[in-house]
Design a protein that fits this description.
The protein has about 240 residues and is of the alpha/beta class. It is built from eight helices and six strands; from the N terminus they run ααββααβαβαββαα. Strands 1-3-2-4-6-5 form a six-stranded mixed sheet, with helices on both faces. The radius of gyration is 17 Å and the shape is globular.
């Protein structure tokens, strides 16, 4: 399985399927803001990373232009990463609370982190066509992560992407179609899907997402993954 994930990673990082995203990620790298001048940007698509035996998969929207697109790992080198991995560390899913560089020593236990779209998009807004072109990578990751049973969708775009990926895996979606919300829950095939506000500055600076809210999502994910909790409920946490 690990070798299959490695093969998928090699395929992802060489992808040039979306011309607009290729142009944008490379343009950002060629003209970075002053604080990152002199750094050698990754400027390629990003695979997921973590524990191949993960029971929990965290799914975001796409890499940040000066975060993952700069350093070469999703949810790394920006404020969203600070929030996400601090919470994962508190939950015992990460060995440290920081994700700042490829060689920072970060290791995940029981968790995998990924995204719906693998290239940094302009204004953080992939087009529907770009989403659909990239989605098979998430589908294949889920196929290879045989122990994954809980998906945490960070934001409505990731929630929609997870539902699309699960449908592509031929799991029947509930009707009516589950709606995103912080703490929303749904069962799709063998998976529990949990909604969480994205740990962006827009949400964390305004208090829309707090550390306590993020911690409750991870606690719920671990309970569901261990089978030590009641099944997902429509009302959320």
């Amino acid at each position: 399985m690990t070798s299959s994930l490695g093969a998928l990673e090699r395929e992802i990082v060489t992808c040039r399927a979306c011309p607009r995203l290729v142009e944008w990620r490379e343009a950002v790298a060629a003209d970075p803001p002053r604080r990152y001048r002199g750094e050698d940007y990754w400027a390629r698509p990003l695979p997921g990373f973590g524990d191949p035996d993960a029971g929990i998969v965290v799914v975001g929207l796409a890499p940040a232009a000066h975060g993952g697109n700069r350093v070469g790992r999703v949810f790394t080198g920006d404020r969203s990463a600070d929030w996400l991995f601090a919470a994962m560390h508190r939950a015992g899913l990460a060995n440290q609370a920081e994700s700042v560089a490829l060689d920072d020593g970060l290791r995940l236990r029981g968790a995998w982190v990924s995204a719906v779209v693998r290239c940094a998009p302009p204004a953080n807004k992939p087009t529907p066509g770009e989403r659909d072109t990239c989605l098979p990578y998430l589908v294949r990751e889920l196929e290879l992560l045989a122990n994954a049973r809980v998906l945490i969708a960070l934001g409505s775009f990731a929630w929609d992407g997870c539902l699309r990926a699960l449908r592509a895996l031929e799991h029947d979606l509930p009707r009516p179609r589950p709606r995103f919300g912080h703490g929303a829950e749904s069962v799709v095939g063998p998976y529990a899907l949990l909604g969480c506000y994205h740990p962006s500055q827009q949400n964390t600076f305004t208090g829309k997402l707090t550390e306590e809210m993020l911690d409750r999502v991870f606690a719920r994910a671990e309970a569901l993954g261990s089978g030590a909790s009641e099944p997902p409920r429509s009302g959320g946490i």
